[in-house]
Amino acid sequence: MIETSPGFEPYLSVNSEPTSGGVKEGLFGLPPTSIVYWARLGLAVLAGAVYNALGLGLQGVLLGTLAAIGIGILFYAASVFLVKNVLRYGEAELKGPRKHVSLGWGTYTIWLIFTIVLLNTILYARP
């Protein structure tokens, strides 16, 4: 005979399934926080592609760095607008105040740098 602890008994009945604990589903069946992460990742890759398509890295180190920061801030501001006004995610959906700004900024930054370096290497490398 299998012994179970009292905490697992509700999940052993035939008709009951574990619930997600009140997590609201957003687009594509994902929770809103995942949608924000994936949107920020996609916009970071797009920002890196735009940076390289415009050839902003070819202007030298100082101007290239300033252009990367400017493009990064511009696209991140667009992602904040997207999350707050288009997707209409607020404090309740994202589980905290100002999460529409702070959620996924590390992912965005790393993927922006990665995309800029990768595309710059592929497009402008000299043999």
How many helices does DSSP assign?
5
Poorly predicted residue ranges: 9-19
- What average pLDDT do the residues reach? 85
Shape: elongated
Order of helices and strands: HHHHH
Q: How many domains would you count in the coordinates?
A: 1
Cα radius of gyration in angstroms: 21 Å
Classify the helix fraction into a percent range.
55-70%
Secondary structure class reads mainly alpha
Main beta-sheet strand count, sense and barrel state: none
Please give the alpha-carbon distance between the first and last residues: 70 Å
Give the percentage of residues in beta strands.
under 5%
Number of DSSP strand runs: 0
Folded structure, characterized:
With 127 residues, the chain is mainly alpha-helical. The protein has one domain (25-124). It is built from five helices and no strands. The protein has helices at 32-53, 61-86, 91-94, 99-102, 105-124. Mean pLDDT is 85; it is low at 9-19.
Question: What would the keywords be for this entry?
Answer:
mainly alpha; 60% helix
Short description:
The protein is mostly helical.
Task: List the topology elements.
Layout: H1 32-53, H2 61-86, H3 91-94, H4 99-102, H5 105-124
